[in-house]
Amino acid sequence: MSSLLKRLTLALMIASSLSAMPLRAQEVNLLDGVTTPAENNPTVEAGKYKKDAPWVIGMSSFGVNANTWTVQVAHEAEAAAARDKRIAKFILLDAGFDQKKQVADIEDLIAQKVDAIIVQPVTSTSADASIEKAVKAGIPVILHTGRIESAAYTTEIQGGAEHFGKVMGDFLVKELKGKGNIWVLRGLAGHPEDTNRYNGLLQSLKGTDIKITAEENGDWQYDKAKKLCETLYLSDPNVDGIWSSGADMTRACVDVFKQFGAPIPPITGEGNNGFFGQWIKDGFKSVSSVYSPAQGAAGVRAAVALLEGKELKKHYAYNPPGWDIDKAKKYYRDDLSANVWWPSELSEEQLKQFYGKK
């Protein structure tokens, strides 16, 4: 065998062996800003859930129409599934905040023998038994937008709720120089995301002289939060800062202060187009925590990675830093409605289809 032929043969053998090696967890890009915690993070071994395409992937949402963010999560997940031609069918089921409905939805997906299930839990315990049943049936379960008490799921991509709340809390502590009175606008009572965001705030306030003088659940909704803020303002308008767990509630509270012709106190926000426009126009002090609706797309990518036979980690954390007003200006789109959230993976055509101003 000639020297050249030997080298070519060796190169082909190396290439073949490399192509046969499973992709390691860090090589699977689930979502920009996602990291893998180093401690207590077991590996989902390569090949465990490998299946030949075409695939059917199911998703159980805690509530598609909970607010504008959850609507976009559904759009992002459906768009990601549509982009991958190996996914023959994507089944999205809406629990509508009903724990029993979510159990029934997951049971339905198991009965349909889907290849993978993505779950956004209604509560920290509502889906535990059904998830365990799915995994026992050999169906990988990808969890996001809420932690559960069971560890039976296959992998999770969690926007660090405590981190999210702490980014906001740290901002208020800095702005108020560690003392003053604040209102707290929480999300949906009992939802794990609300609980953990609030815990992040408490971490920030520890050791300060900042007091929570009012605490209400606005359910991450504009209309409910507006009524709450009107009531709070009429009861006692002397507030030094506002911690709001979601941008729709922030927009509502800002509108209330403008309605009464009062100065807008430092108030926390989130990556929402309507909030960004309001922030840029009125120039009040704020910070934007980031909670991309593209977590819906990331769930689809995780399901695909498992079905491809790739190695994943059990836990993924999404803890991006807060955005200032300069970053908000780079994303803000005047030609789109208030209902779009950033960052997004939707195409320009889809953004205009779903969120273009009429």
Which secondary structure elements does this structure contain, and how are they paired or packed?
Blueprint: H1 3-20, E1 34-35, E2 43-44, E3 55-61, H2 68-83, E4 87-94, H3 99-111, E5 116-119, H4 128-136, E6 141-144, E7 155-159, H5 161-175, E8 179-186, H6 192-205, E9 209-217, H7 222-235, E10 241-244, H8 247-259, E11 269-270, H9 273-282, E12 288-289, H10 295-308, E13 312-313, E14 315-318, H11 325-331, H12 348-355
Parallel strand pairs: 3-4, 3-5, 5-6, 6-7, 7-14, 8-9, 8-10, 11-12
Antiparallel strand pairs: 1-14, 2-13
Essential attributes:
alpha/beta; Rossmann fold; 2 domains; 7-stranded mixed β-sheet; 3-stranded parallel β-sheet; 12 helices; 42% helix; globular
Count structural domains: 2
Hey, roughly how much beta strand do the residues contain?
15-25%
Second CATH tier, the architecture of the largest domain: 3-Layer(aba) Sandwich
Helical percent range? Answer: 40-55%
Distance between the termini: 72 Å
Number of strands: 14
What CATH calls the topology of the largest domain is Rossmann fold
Poorly predicted ranges:
8-26
Shape: globular
* Rg from alpha-carbon coordinates: 23 Å
Structural class: alpha/beta
Helices and strands, in order, run as HEEEHEHEHEEHEHEHEHEHEHEEHH
Q: Largest beta sheet, briefly?
A: 7 strands, mixed
Signal peptide: 1-25
Keywords: Signal
Domain Periplasmic binding protein: 64-311
GO molecular function, one term: carbohydrate binding
